[in-house]
Amino acid sequence: MKHRSSLNTRRLASELEGIPALDRNALIAKWRTLYGTEPPVGVRNNFLMHAIAHRMQEQELGGVKPATRRFLEKAAEDNVSRQQQIISIRPGTRLLREWHGVTYEVIIMEDGVRCNGKRYRSLSEVARAITGARWSGPLFFGLKKKEVA
């Protein structure tokens, strides 16, 4: 663990207080120094300020513990895995779903979906219109496996 003196902590606090006064060129230069890369294209100054402050604190006070980093990486992998479970469907695909004795036909379009002649932005919007409750559209239409806790 890094030893932190009150002098270093005060210096860090002073540097952090000065970040909002930096112009864009100074923020980009500070980013390059701290990250060793160019900042992402098109990011706003507010993002640069927060990322710079985070990196400065991380370097001075220590970063995320290895166990926490592993946990976050595993959570990200699990999320990608869940997203990959969703079946890919192409425009023109026709889905049928029976709900309380009524059959609903959904046609996938380039810019949304059509259900019984009405256009919707997403399958989830259709599922909400049918059930009156918030549903995952892909789950409601059988395109995604139900997750078991």
What does this protein look like?
α1 packs antiparallel against α3 and α2 packs parallel to α3. This protein is elongated. By secondary structure, the protein is α+β, with helices and mostly antiparallel strands. It starts with 5 loop residues before the first helix and ends in a 9-residue tail after the last helix. The protein has a 4-stranded antiparallel beta sheet, covered by helices on one side.
Quick structural summary:
This protein has 149 residues and is α+β, with helices and mostly antiparallel strands. Helices cover 50% and strands 14% of the residues.
What kind of sheet is the major sheet? Answer: 4 strands, antiparallel
Task: Give the fraction of residues assigned to helices.
Answer: 40-55%
Provide mean pLDDT, rounded. Answer: 86
Structural class call reads alpha+beta
Rg over CA atoms, rounded to whole Å, is 25 Å
Unreliable residue stretches:
none
Strand content: 5-15%
Q: Rough shape? A: elongated
Instruction: Give the N-terminus to C-terminus distance in angstroms.
Output: 36 Å
Helical stretch count?
6
The side-by-side strand order for the widest beta sheet comes to 1-2-3-4
Total count of strands: 4
The H-and-E topology, N to C, reads as HHHHEEEEHH
